[in-house]
Amino acid sequence: MLTLPNSLRDTFKQPLGPVTTDTDELLADAAETRGERVAPDAPIIAVGDVVTYHLREAGRVPDVALIDGKTEREAVDTEIESALAAADDRRIPVENPAASLSTELLEALSEALSDVDPVIIEVTGEEDLAALPAILAAPDGASVVYGQPGEGMVRVAVTPESRTEARELFEALEGDVEAAYKALGRVPDGDR
Asked: Residue 120's domain spans which residues?
């Protein structure tokens, strides 16, 4: 449905938030973003196997996790693969080619975010661009966490400002952006 043009590859390599290797610090920051009165039930969305594994190991099962069995285009190690395979969360299998966002992935993300129980979206292909629609679809106060190759984890606090930045990048992708918003269950102007 949407693909990343070669001309934007460098832009998409820039982290959308702070990079950390400290999972406990990341979770403390996510709790602060949610706030007890602002959005105590705001979800944490994890994009990537290693990020999902580290959050689970730190005692926080992501509300939505997108995994593809790879890290930096190589198979994840057996410890991570086994731990994620053992998770008893509901699973939604989708196909999503590299450097793209498929209708299937966008619809699964929307469905997973509406589930009260944790959901793992198992991607055949690649989930690297999924942070953008996750930021667009998640409620204010949520956190989207993804891996920054060779550096650590990036946590994006979902706010009107981060949603605007994600929307600009999302709309720079090639393809039918309007249909992508429809599949995601989002209106383009950012209203809920």
From this structure: 2-9+17-177
Q: Which residues are annotated as a binding site?
A: 49-51, 68, 70, 127
Q: Which residues are annotated as a binding site for GTP?
A: 49-51, 68, 70, 127
Give φ, ψ of 11 to 5 degrees: -60, -40
Residue 95 lies in a domain: yes
Query: Could you say which DSSP state residue 187 is in?
Result: -
Q: Which of 148, 136, 118, 116 is nearest to 47 (CA)?
A: 148
Alpha helices in 7-48, H assignment, sequence order? 9-12, 23-34
Burial of 83 (0-12, 13-18, 19+ CB in 10 A): middle
- The answer to whether residue 147 is domain-embedded is yes
Spell out the per-residue pLDDT of the chain, length 192, in tens. 899 998 988 888 899 999 999 999 999 999 888 876 567 788 999 999 999 999 999 999 999 999 999 887 788 999 999 999 999 999 999 999 999 999 999 999 999 999 999 999 999 999 999 999 999 999 999 999 999 988 999 999 999 999 999 999 999 999 999 999 999 998 765 444
Q: What is this structure's pTM?
A: 0.93
